[in-house]
Amino acid sequence: MCFIAWNKGQHFGNRYVFLRGTIQYSRKDSRTLQLYQQLNETLLKFLDSISKKAFQTSSTTDSGAKKELYDISINGLDGSLINLSTLKGKFILFVNVASKCGFTNQYKDLERLYKEYQDRLMIVGLPCNQFGSQEPGSSEEILSFCEKNYGVSFLMTQKVQVKGKAQHPLYQWLTQKSMNGRSNSAVRWNFQKYLVSPEGTLIDYFYSTTGPLSSKITKNLV
């Protein structure tokens, strides 16, 4: 059965709660779940493409000029400054992360993805507490959690706002077509992913339900 529920994509027993609904399914029928996941993501991308309210262009510089991705900097989890220009020539996968989310276990596959493609890929994890208050810890607590539980070795930043009035300039660029030249989007939950090319152009974005090792992502890393 399917009914509308304003919840997020997570497993609860034999239920999978989607961004826009809840599907009851049998564990033997994982194909049905995959089809609903694909349908859900297609619907959300369609909604993103037609939405206007979420994609205001107030994030341009005072002169009205658009920022390039490599002009942006962000504070690392250890307090150091990360200039994105230092990542030129590599794919970059930006992921807003949280320590107490149903998708937190994706850290494991993010690390696997990084280890496999680190010659051409950098993953940047951006802790965010805007979805269900699921990243309440300090920078020290987040760092300890990631290293102890998942052996995270890719870049991690300090907490950021990925939406709203205090949206970080990086997410202004990632979510606004007027800046990235490709697509409008909205960050809908933890572990949404944005893939950028070695030339600094947005390739695509992926909702939380797309795992880090999905072919949707890895097919681009060739």
List the helices and strands and how they pair.
Layout: E1 2-3, E2 10-12, E3 15-17, E4 22-24, H1 30-50, E5 73-75, E6 81-83, E7 91-97, H2 106-117, E8 121-127, H3 139-150, E9 155-156, H4 169-175, H5 177-180, E10 193-196, E11 202-206, H6 215-218
Parallel strand pairs: 7-8, 8-9
Antiparallel strand pairs: 1-4, 2-3, 3-4, 5-6, 7-10, 10-11
Describe the protein's architecture and organization.
With 222 residues, the chain is of the alpha+beta class. The chain folds into 2 domains: 2-50, no CATH class; 69-218, Glutaredoxin. Helix content is 27%, strand content 19%. The chain has helices at 30-50, 106-117, 139-150, 169-175, 177-180, 215-218, and strands at 2-3, 10-12, 15-17, 22-24, 73-75, 81-83, 91-97, 121-127, 155-156, 193-196, 202-206. The strands form 3 sheets. The protein has a 5-stranded mixed sheet, with helices on one face.
CATH homologous superfamily annotation of the largest domain: Glutaredoxin
Portion of residues within helices: 25-40%
CATH architecture of the largest domain: 3-Layer(aba) Sandwich
According to CATH, the fold-level topology of the largest domain is Glutaredoxin
Largest sheet: 5 strands, mixed
Number of beta strands: 11
CATH class descriptor of the largest domain: Alpha Beta
Write a compact overview of the structure shown.
The chain has 222 residues and is of the alpha+beta class. The protein is built from 6 helices and 11 strands.
What attributes characterize this protein structure?
single chain; 222 residues; alpha+beta; Glutaredoxin; 2 domains; five-stranded mixed β-sheet; four-stranded antiparallel β-sheet; 11 strands; 27% helix; disordered N terminus
